[in-house]
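Entry 14. Ran structure prediction on the chain below.
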Amino acid sequence: MSDTRVLIDALETNIRRLIRQVDVLEQRLKAQQIQASIQEQQLKDREQKLSQMEADVLSLKMANSLLGSTESKREMKLKINALIRDIDACIAQWTE
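Output, structure tokens:
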């Protein structure tokens, strides 16, 4: 009987230890999920900021081309020509 009791006590000890480990792991998981959520939000914020900066750069390039930079003039002419080709293609499809 005492051997059985010793085995039961050992099992209870192991079960309690495992339950504590599960609790610790659950707490770590929750902390990591919170951290992942925070990092995901930071990433979204940075992507939005990057998108805004890219739009600002495009606006600045357009403004610069209007001011007369020779390199920007070339880019602007190419963009205008591409837009004209697109408009011509649309008109051609519309008239068909």
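The helical segments are 2-67, 70-95. Will compare against last week's run tomorrow.
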